[in-house]
TrEMBL record:
Family label: Belongs to the AAA ATPase family. BCS1 subfamily.
Keywords carried by this UniProt record: ATP-binding, Hydrolase, Magnesium, Nucleotide-binding
Gene Ontology terms for molecular function: ATP binding; ATP hydrolysis activity
Protein name stated in the entry: AAA+ ATPase domain-containing protein
Lineage of producing organism: Eukaryota, Viridiplantae, Streptophyta, Embryophyta, Tracheophyta
Gene Ontology BP, a term: response to stress
Species of origin: Turnera subulata
UniProt-annotated stretches for the region Disordered: 303-322
SUPFAM superfamilies: P-loop containing nucleoside triphosphate hydrolases
Pfam family, one: AAA
Domain of life: Eukaryota
Coiled-coil regions listed: none
Catalytic activity: ATP + H2O = ADP + phosphate + H(+)
Cofactor needs: Mg(2+)
AAA+ ATPase domain segment(s): 237-392
Length: 486
């Protein structure tokens, strides 16, 4: 034994050998990285991985964030499911709070890039890892994918039982989610950026006529229950809403109430920033199911949604108005560089691309319905047209109950009489009621505001009539003078 110990190398010899081996390894690594082209390095690494994998008892699933040009729903399900499985085995954890209104809210867990999470299911040990690839010259988007490792013998069980369990759990979480997001598209990085959506609007606080409110609620309830019906009749499971009317009549507030009622996220799309139809398809197909795609002020978004000039027979005379319209289109940049065309927009709403996703609401808002092309308005594209008009007595009573906490008052009849004569939006009424204080004082101020507006309208009408009368008298004098001279 003493002889054996005497023959062992000393500690200094071992450290010297270790340093030499390390230096040699670093030299080989430098040569490998600097002198060998990257494609060859990747090929060699892949071959070594294949060789060593033959001796491993593990099997690996790759779940990318995109699948066949659309979002990968399996990846999204894993994103929703995995934070619920965070345990003591997780060595790294991503934390964050996107609620800008509540800085003290507890942070939500997430999976960091290169972070590992271990899950247990029916005796299987599943290891998840999130990977991210840096953008290249062909794409500005960070590509992400999950790596799911299990034993080779558990491969079929993972496919048959575990992954369906992940998807079912994710659906249950989404159906009962407390937090909603509103997304805006970032053209520079080609991705949707989320922000926590906490709009307080509900159907309880919405100032709408009771009949219209109940119609909308019934329509929403019927839509979410009819998946099998849409499949049977061969139509995409989607619904199109057009909200139109003057500014300040509550169109955006109704969208918020619909999102809160259905618990759907909102994708707010600005068509002005979309480069072309191909870009539009890529943007819209990257939205998720159970969501609302919102395009506000569609009449201002692009000239492609405006009514097109009617075709004229060959040889027909071109009048001045038509000539001005054509000249205006030629001067318009969107005509020479069309961007989003009407056909491109319709193809996603009601064409083949409309089937890329399900359980979606597409909502357009506009102040001028008459400016929209009729092709955009027909049933199947915009299924429900909702006019959001000026304040009515019913809307006023709902606003009074919300802002003043009263259901009746002796001044209500006076206010309702004025509202029926004076056009005023619910937003303007709400602004007057938000002054607070004694309800009677607030109502009296509202009556004074309405009386002032009515008097201004009467004066304006008198001025217009006076000008028309003056023009008429001059015309008649000119006609009479011509007749007398002749």
């Amino acid at each position: 034994m003493a002889y054996f110990l005497k023959e062992l190398p000393s500690m200094s010899t071992l450290l010297s050998a270790y340093a030499s081996i390390s230096t040699l390894a670093m030299l080989f690594r430098t040569i490998f990285n600097e002198m060998i082209p990257k494609p060859i390095r990747n090929f060699i690494s892949a071959k070594f991985s294949d060789i060593f994998s033959n001796f491993s008892s593990d099997f690996t699933f790759i779940i990318e964030d995109r699948w066949h040009a659309v979002g990968n729903e399996t990846f999204r399900a894993a994103e929703v499911y995995l934070p619920t499985r965070v345990g003591h085995s997780t060595k790294r954890l991503l934390l964050g709070n996107g609620d800008t209104n509540t800085i003290t809210a507890p942070p939500q867990p997430g999976i960091p890039v290169d972070g590992k999470l271990v899950d247990e299911f029916q005796g299987m040990r599943l290891v998840w890892t999130l990977r991210q690839e840096e953008p290249n010259k062909h794409s500005h988007r960070n590509k992400r994918h999950f790596v799911l490792s299990c034993k080779k013998n558990d491969r079929e069980k993972v496919m048959r039982s575990y992954l369906p369990h992940v998807c079912r759990t994710a659906v249950s979480i989404l159906n009962h989610r407390q937090k909603l997001n509103i997304y805006t598209y970032d053209q520079e990085y080609s991705m949707w950026e989320p922000t926590v959506f906490k709009h307080p609007a509900t159907f309880e606080t919405l100032a709408l006529e009771p009949e219209l409110k109940q119609f909308i609620i019934n329509d929403l309830d019927l839509f979410v229950k009819r998946k099998e019906y849409f499949q049977c009749v061969g139509r995409a499971w989607k619904r199109g809403y057009l909200l139109y009317g003057p500014p300040g009549t509550g169109k955006t507030t109704l969208v918020a109430a619909i999102a809160n009622y259905l618990r759907f996220n909102i994708y707010d799309l600005q068509l002005q920033g979309v480069r072309n139809d191909a870009d539009l398809r890529r943007i819209l197909t990257s939205t998720t199911n159970r969501s609302i795609i919102l395009i506000e002020d569609i009449d201002c978004s692009t000239t492609s949604t405006h009514s097109r000039p009617r075709a004229r027979p060959p040889g027909a005379k071109v009048d001045n108005d038509d000539a001005k319209e054509v000249d205006g289109m030629l001067d318009n940049k969107n005509f020479l560089d069309p961007g989003v065309t009407l056909s491109g927009l319709l193809n996603f709403i009601d064409g083949l691309w409309s089937s890329c996703g399900e359980e979606r609401f597409i909502i357009f808002t506009t102040n001028h319905k008459e400016k929209l092309d009729p092709a955009l308005l027909r049933p199947g594209r915009m299924d429900v047209h909702i006019y959001m008009g000026h304040c009515t007595p019913g809307c006023f009573r709902k606003l009074a109950a919300t802002y003043l906490r009263i259901k009746d008052h002796f001044l209500f009849s006076c206010v309702e009489d004025l509202i029926q004569r004076v056009p005023i939006t619910p937003a303007e009424v709400a602004q007057q009621l938000m002054e607070g204080g004694n309800p009677q004082v607030v109502l009296e101020a509202l009556i004074e505001f309405l009386n002032t507006r009515e008097n201004e309208a009467v004066k304006q009408e008198e001025v217009v009539n006076e000008k028309l009368s003056s023009v008429g008298n001059k015309t008649w004098r000119r006609i009479l003078g011509t007749t007398i001279r002749s």
